[in-house]
Amino acid sequence: MVKYTVYILYSEKIDQFYRGQTKDLNDRLKRHNKGIEKFTQNGTPWRLMWSTIKETRSESLKLETKLKNLSRERLIRFMLKYKEDIAEQEILLFLQKLT
């Protein structure tokens, strides 16, 4: 069964977070960083900050929608709350500085 990844990216260039979901995180991250995805092309390079796996597309879309509705501050608090899904220890320190 195909699993889905819900993810949060960050662009230092434009100081913004991007939330999304996909079946293939590595391919999707490459597409974001090559400027193929119109919405994120101005922010390259994008860095993976947080991700989690969901069993169904329905679950992943539900979480993606929740994340997209969070303010920047609440999104950062969300990532810190679920820090076991943060991509790297260095990112945890970065997020803690933002709060």
Automatic annotation (TrEMBL):
CDD domains referenced in this protein's UniProt entry, alphabetically: GIY-YIG_SLX1_like
Domain GIY-YIG: 2-77
Pfam families with a match to the protein in the record: GIY-YIG
InterPro entries given in the database record: GIY-YIG_endonuc, GIY-YIG_endonuc_sf, UPF0213_domain
Xref: PANTHER family: BSL5627 PROTEIN, UPF0213 PROTEIN YHBQ
Family per similarity comment: Belongs to the UPF0213 family.
Protein name: GIY-YIG nuclease family protein
Species this chain originates from: Marivirga aurantiaca
